Amino acid sequence: MVDRTVNNFYFPGMARPRTFDEAQVLRAVRDQFWNKGYAATSMDDLMRATGLGKGSLYGAFGDKHQLFLKVFDTYCVSSVESVKKTLEGPDAGALERLRQYMLGVATASAAPANRRGCLLARGTSELAAQDAHVADRALETFRGLEAAFVRCLEQARAHGDLAAHADSQRLGAMLLAVFRGLEAVGKAGMDEASLRGMVETAFEHLPAPVKRRR
């Protein structure tokens, strides 16, 4: 059997092993960008937030831009996966799952603690115009969220909770706009009742199925 304990030691000429929790460091980096934005965050800020020196940060993750892209990509992927997981379930109840999810977003968006918005929105508004990677990743994320909504709507239509002629793609795109709008107006201070009212109005206007005759 091969003895792998040598990996726990450092020898002159070898790169020093990492002595920090990478996930914890990246969370600190993410929160720093999230709170201050990309341009307003300096390497000194990141050093203070993580407790690491510039050499350690550069050696492990690259420069400031590379660090941002890493945490931005991770945030985007986890956001889509979280929504997909929340909306998973049988055809029966799919529309209600989607409605309850959107109402939850409305409530969260109205909370003072969430006034900073999400990293996706902040990074997109600040960098997408000049950073193709951020623009592409943001668009991919929005498409992923839209696809999760469309899937729920298709399930609802199959179960008879939406009209047979309902266009799930167009309705999914509309709900994506509502979803993103909730955060934007929530950041401005709009109250929870108003945000939840927007969601209820959107769902009240979805094409209803023709009532089955007895």
From TrEMBL:
This is TetR family transcriptional regulator. It comes from the Bacteria. Keywords: DNA-binding, Transcription, Transcription regulation. Residues 19-79 form the HTH tetR-type domain. InterPro entries: DNA-bd_HTH_TetR-type_CS, Homeodomain-like_sf, HTH_TetR, Tet_transcr_reg_TetR-rel_C_sf, TetR_C. Pfam families: TetR_C_13, TetR_N. It comes from Corallococcus exiguus. GO terms for molecular function: DNA binding. Residues 42-61 bind DNA.
